[in-house]
Amino acid sequence: MTDGTGAVVPDAHLTLLHNHEKLSEGSSDAAGAYMFPELRGGSYDLEVDASGFAKYSVTDIAIDEGTARRIDVHLRVASEEQVTVTTETSGVSLNSEENTNTTVIKGSQLDALADDPDALQTELQSLAGPAAGPDGGQLYIDGYTGGQLPPKSSILEVRVNQNPFSAENDRIGYGRIDIITKPGAVKFGGHLRGSYLNSALNTSNPLATVQPSYQYYSVAGDVAGAITKNSSYFFAMQYWQRQNQNFLRAVDPNDTSAIPQTLSQAIPAPYSTTQSYGRFDDQLGKHILQAQWVLFRTRRTGAGTGGLNLPEQAYSSTDLENMLQAKDTVALSARMLNELSARWWRIRTDQTPESTRPAVTVQGSFVSGGSASGHTSNHQDNVELHDYVTLTAGKHVMRAGVLLRSYRVADYSNAGSNGNYQFQSLADYHAATPSPYLYTATVITNPLARLLQLDGALFFQDEWRWKPSLNVSYGLRMEGQNRVHDHINWAPRLAIAWSPGATGKTAPKTVLRAAGGVFYTRVTQAMQIQTIHNDGILQQNYVVRNPSFYDPNQPVPAELLESAPASQRSIYTLDPSFRISRNVQAAVGVDRSLGKLGSVNVNYLYTRGVHQYYTNNVNAPFFDPATYTISGTAPSTYNYQFQSGGDFRQHQLIVTSDTTYRRLFLHAVYTYNHATADTQGVNYFPSVARIPSLDYGRASFAPAHQLQAMMTYKGPFRINLTAITSVETGRPYNITIGNDLTGNNQSNARPTYGLCGAADVIRTSYGCLDINPTGKGERIVPYGLGTSPTSATVHVTLNRVFNFGERPSGGPVKPGAAPKPVPRYTLTVIAGATNILNMVNLAPPNGVLSSPLFGQQLAPPTGAFALSSPGNRTVYFTSYFSF
Q: Quick one: which of 462, 457, 459 has its CA closest to 494?
């Protein structure tokens, strides 16, 4: 607490309220400070009274359980009117966790988002905006990474991009989404919820000539209440049934004409999801105890089809997850909190193909036969432990902690045992033998791979209000994991916020920010499991070029694979000099208050990624890009090695605005992206094994322009309108020949710029491209030459609240005033439409130049533009009853 001169105000009386009820009170000390310990997560109001000063109120203070939040109170003399501040609309702040591009979604805004967990996650990722690098943003649920999105009825609020340079973050903070779940309630209450959509109300899908019939529906409910004076509970359940459809867009394998027919059809792929969530909260003396239980189960059939994959590629799968989480928050002193938490997460997944016949792949045209992924069963038992301490001391809020994670994995897989015939063109496929083709298969000695992976981190973070106009946040994080030689990784973080001319008497109008930090991307369990399965002992992977056999109805015997001429093996390994992927990010920006209208933020970010991951065929024969020729012989064993030699550079200009005008609220984020890279992720193979830098070009993860906006309007008669808009210009995509002409045993060779009209040269919008460039000395086209069309979508919801009955509010009442009643029951009816303007958005075009489908968009969109049903525009209805 400070006065108009910046001097501290001792003995100020503070009252903390929750749900309009007095929760705690106290007085500021000689340093003008006071701490409310042992708070549960939620939204609070604060009232401050001090002799000679006007009453001061702060509303809607969002608190994470077990964490500290600093509120700077500036008191005015008693002759001035009462000061009331709403934390979400009070303009700009010097605090790191209150950067202007932070978004908090709760209440009616959260109600307006989709009930479907898949659609909800898509909407949240859209609102978070783009993250830097190929890995995308990260989702946290009550401070933990991973896990399924909980039922929406159990979510208290969502925070996006909060404090992106905190040492507590293990990944880049921009694009980060924090889900805060609801605690138990003091009074009994709950909700009943249902959603429904039907194909009769939706528009047709552009990928299918005959439109399927389908429906989605869900039922959900939750209850909360008190067990004792100091304990409470919350329980929620949700069930979703989706008659989903996958859309096939592939060449007809049986059509031998010069211009083959394209198959366009819907393939049923229904799935159901059941979720249960329970939470128990208790206060024992200075301890706040919390326990959570989560059950998630999903069942899918018809998965793996669509795009180029024919119906026989289908497989069924089940996913069963159980999670137990416990937390103990204790006030060690008036200024120190300790929060100890642990999570056990059990995952059981199983996948069974509908056919065990060999797969048949024609590059860029179709994939038929049985699924090459085979039968898999994955069992995981993961344990995570956090111990964090928060200390306030004068102008400092310090936080330190330790994180330990253990992953125990048992993975059963016979993937590849059915074999895969790979043809470079339709002509080769129809000729079968003796036309050249490739056959790959796996002989299983032991289908089970086991892994124990450990990682951990230590961090220290200090939020230091050096001056009323200057805030410095600095920290250091140390990370490490087993099974890699690069054991210890240091990650310093720094963020500075300065408000020119600020004296602490009033809230700042302008804040200049500068920040920087180092972030790491850990090695995943999937990478390690791949190297264990495919070590050449548990499984033997064979590559047979131009074999004398062709039988698409049954797998080839192991002895024939071993004795076949030109038979080669392949293994997966981890580079002995492997380094953990490191991303260095720097940012400068400005926050500006627009008064009652809101605020605007402009940020420039530069991110440099080194030691980026890819998979490389390290002993492939030498290839000369100048002449497009291979020299040397192929090895007896291909070594597909996970390496960390990749690099990316990304520039981002991000403009964020929050505007409030009467009943209208608008949150908008515009991003300009320019990114170049020589890898697109861990499973990316360089087109030339010995020269990965030859693939340095436009990165597919960074469209040049993106716009995300969320608008809410509180209309008359308790009618609310919400609209979410996403727009992005076309993403780069790669153009390949569909053949292995560089010797890396991958069909990702790029064409060259050829002479228009010459043999094997195809005229495209990107120039005349040569699909047979060997020995011609032509220039290879750059990576990411193609650009997909612009995508845009608008989602709209309209809801109306109906109130029934009355009950006392239970809140404080002014002397002489009657208690104000509140509704006992409410019914909310929601009508929504995704992609209401019926815009056609599809995945990037087929980039295989030799395919009859080159340049066509063959699959539904993903990310922010993913369809919420098989229809292009989806209309749905939701209602929930509150009691």
A: 462
